[in-house]
Amino acid sequence: MPLYKSQSLKVHNTLSGEKENFNPIHEGNIGMYVCGPTVYSNVHLGNVRTFMSFDVIFRYLLHLDYKVRYVRNITDAGHLTDDGDIDNDRFVKQSRLEKLEPMEIVQKYTVDFHKVLDTFNFLPPTIEPTATGHIIEQIELTQKLIDSGFAYESKGSVYFDVFEYNKRGMKYGELSNRNIDELFANTRDLDGQNEKKNPQDFALWKSASPAHIMRWNSPWGEGFPGWHLECTAMSTKYLGEKFDIHGGGMDLKFPHHECEVAQGKACNGESPVNYWLHTNMLTMNGLRMSKSTGNYILPLELVKGDNTFFEKPFEPNIVRFCFLQAHYRSVLDISNDAMVASEKGYHRLMESYKLTSSLKASNSSSLDVAAWRQNCYDAMNDDFNTPILIAQLFEGARYINVVNDGAETLTSEDIELLSTTFSTFLFDVLGVNNKISQNTADTTEKLNGTIELLIQMRNQARADKNFALSDQIRDQLIALGIQLKDGKEGTSFSI
Ligand code: AMP
Ligand code: ZN
């Protein structure tokens, strides 16, 4: 029997603002779409947080034995800068800055994105489509919206008619809970050309001059697709007109996801997504992480220690562990102290895990392992509550330690259940990379052994009164950042 049949998953749906029982459209199968990165620059750690939240959601759904089609796109065209100037789209602007072709920019930062995902042990999505690979689908959708009266052409561009949409009984603003009248008051006609009937109409297709490098032929002349349309085109193509889960950072709720709802409803008459999941933001020292404010750090800078925000490097497993100690819908603030605390907690869990293979079995169990296991499931079933799951893993670590000390007893079956549940949730569901942590542990062991050997050689040199050699050993270790401390109990070291 698939595991999902014995677990009842609840997810928080932005559309209703409530936690709802999760029921996929087709039993046993899930379609999930997550807005991917705009590859005009390196992803920052904030982006990684959002993608990691969905990586864990994907992992848990797979663990529950669902067959998941997970689509995460690459935005490689159409994302305008905040000023909305079409000759200033993000790729064109960056390509001028770096003196590269726009497609070289796309390639460079797609490669960087994948490297980051590998570093942090992400599972690849099942489909990773690009906007430029789906221009035809976007043109077709635009035409469909024109034909049904939801969109109009103006000076070679095509806009979605928000008023028409509302006139036909639908409600633009339902996802982000915005009032259309307020929207009227707050939106400006960004391109200032009065191309739109109403300021809140959004572009499905933008006309582009020959100077604009990224442009394609269309029934309305040369141009490029709007950002909101690409996600509707790709999600419809791979997941159908209605699918189960759509995710992204909460900053995408409006206008991006609101426009996706409107496009889907206008095309097919019904809401395209059953469950909208939105992640909260990563802040650093209390401020939202973002490229535009300069308050950001690149993921590999944190891992290599190549930055001014953190005192030392933190390995990818520690970063993952730190991120997952906050629920995906809560703000997460990272700081040096938070990372150091996560590092300690992570090592405590790993130390306990290492003991599982040597636990001694008894004839009876004094601890209820099956109940603890269900607590782990309950945590994840409650809208993927990773901090509660981690608290349960610490409880599991306590079980391991008390059984190891002989204070409590477990049968061999319960030891097996404790060990497999612990490793399943830590490695398969939370995505901690067991291989890396094993390699790191091995390397640390070897390094410690080597330093002990050098201490012995130094002691021998001192006994032989060869002070030149003993000083050389000490000084060269200091140069490598390893301090020796001579005390009554012998020589200790710190790295
Ligand atoms: P972008 O490449 O800007 O479209 O962003 C990719 C994803 O990262 C989107 O889902 C954003 O919502 C998300 N994102 C951007 N900034 C942050 C942040 N500071 N914390 C968490 N997620 C973020
Ligand atoms: Zn999107």
From TrEMBL:
Matching Pfam families: DALR_2 (PF09190), tRNA-synt_1e (PF01406)
Subcellular location per the Swiss-Prot or TrEMBL entry: Cytoplasm
SMART domains: DALR_2
Cysteinyl-tRNA synthetase class Ia DALR domain location: 375-436
Cofactor binding summary note: Binds 1 zinc ion per subunit.
Catalytic reaction annotation: tRNA(Cys) + L-cysteine + ATP = L-cysteinyl-tRNA(Cys) + AMP + diphosphate
Binding residues for Zn(2+): 35, 231, 256, 260
Keywords recorded for this protein, A-Z: Aminoacyl-tRNA synthetase, ATP-binding, Cytoplasm, Ligase, Metal-binding, Nucleotide-binding, Protein biosynthesis, Zinc
Cofactor: Zn(2+)
EC number: 6.1.1.16
Motif ('KMSKS' region): 288-292
Gene3D superfamilies for this protein: Cysteine-tRNA ligase, C-terminal anti-codon recognition domain, HUPs
Motif ('HIGH' region): 37-47
GO molecular function, one term: zinc ion binding
Leader peptide range in chain numbering: none
SUPFAM superfamilies assigned to the protein according to its UniProt record, in alphabetical order: Anticodon-binding domain of a subclass of class I aminoacyl-tRNA synthetases (SSF47323), Nucleotidylyl transferase (SSF52374)
Binding site for ATP: 291
Domain of life of the native organism: Bacteria
Cellular component, GO annotation: cytosol
NCBIfam families: cysS
Subunit structure: Monomer.
Family: Belongs to the class-I aminoacyl-tRNA synthetase family.
Name the record gives this protein: Cysteine--tRNA ligase
Name of the gene: cysS
